[in-house]
Amino acid sequence: MALEVRTINDNYEKFKKDIYDYLNIDLNSYKERQMKRRIDSLIFKNGCSSYSEYFSKIKGNKSSLDQFMGYFTINVSEFFRNPAQWEVLENLLISEIVPKNQGISAVKIWSAACSTGEEPYSIAMLLDKNFPGKRFEIIATDIDNEILESAKLGIYDEKSVKNVKDEFKRKYLNRTDGGKYQVIDKIKKMVSFRNHDLIKDFYGRNYDLIVCRNVMIYFTEEAKLAIYKKFCSSLKSGGYLFIGSTEQIIKPVELGFKTENSFFYKKVVK
């Protein structure tokens, strides 16, 4: 017997417009089939039968709004995800990114779409290990304020820390009474968390490193291109962009990058 496939035949275009008007989030920049499937699932979980009914629930119920934002922002992360790539990053930090800033300003790093904070804290651990006492500016951003509050607490389960070396667990994580791990204050103080929408908000300038991993796969090709261009503009000449293991920049030279290593792109020095 074939499984029943439930779909919503309501006006999805109007739902997108309503979401934009209410939350200033542009769903047109996300791959429609993936996003629509996620939203349809939420509609059924909330006992709704249409986009209009679900939108009314989002507006009138904070828990439904928070649930939508959590689903919408696809919060999946862990410390040192794809460890071999983090070894490449550590070598770049030691050999190039930090040394070229000696005696100048603090090294400036942006962890974009940081989710629950594992990646910016991973960066902070690497920097503290290799450059103790040196000042760094690590900015971590996400569109979901609830997730950012969780990131600031810095409390994680066993699955999130599975790639953390024992040395780092002893030095940078404390065990809680509930058996979880909490990032120590020294590392938390190295990271500044802020709300930011990659589609519509202003990008900063003069970053030495931008980390944005496993997020671009959800955007349309047009949105990806615009984001990569803005990342390039935000980097210093010779700065690096570190992307996810399922992602690739097609024709990076046309955007002002050269491929330095798998998943690492360097802004062309002008």
Gist of the model:
The chain is of the alpha/beta class. The protein has helices at residues 12-23, 32-45, 51-60, 62-72, 83-97, 118-130, 145-153, 166-172, 185-188, 221-234, and strands spanning 107-111, 136-142, 155-156, 173-175, 181-183, 191-195, 207-212, 235-243, 257-261, 264-267.
Can you offer a commentary on this structure?
- The chain is built from ten helices and ten strands.
- The protein is an alpha/beta fold.
- The chain folds into two domains: 12-72, no CATH class; 83-267, Rossmann fold (3-Layer(aba) Sandwich), CATH 3.40.50.
- The strands form two sheets. A seven-stranded mixed beta sheet has the order 6-2-1-7-8-10-9.
- The longest helix is centred in the middle third of the chain and has 15 residues, at 83-97.
- The chain is globular, with a radius of gyration of 20 Å.
Label the CATH architecture of the largest domain: 3-Layer(aba) Sandwich
**Distance separating the two termini:** 63 Å
- Please provide the ordered H/E string of secondary-structure elements: HHHHHEHEHEHEEHEEHEEE
How many strands, what sense, and barrel or not for the largest sheet?
7 strands, mixed
The CATH first-level class of the largest domain comes to: Alpha Beta
User: What would the average pLDDT be, to the nearest integer?
Assistant: 89
Rg, please?
A: 20 Å
The total tally of domains equals 2
Low-confidence stretches: 1-5
Q: What share of the residues does DSSP label as strand, in percent?
A: 15-25%
Number of helices: 10
Q: By CATH's scheme, which homologous superfamily of the largest domain applies? A: Vaccinia Virus protein VP39
Query: Would you report the number of β strands?
Result: 10
Structural class: alpha/beta
CATH topology of the largest domain: Rossmann fold
Into which percent range does the helicity of residues fall?
40-55%
Strand order of the largest sheet: 6-2-1-7-8-10-9
The global form is globular
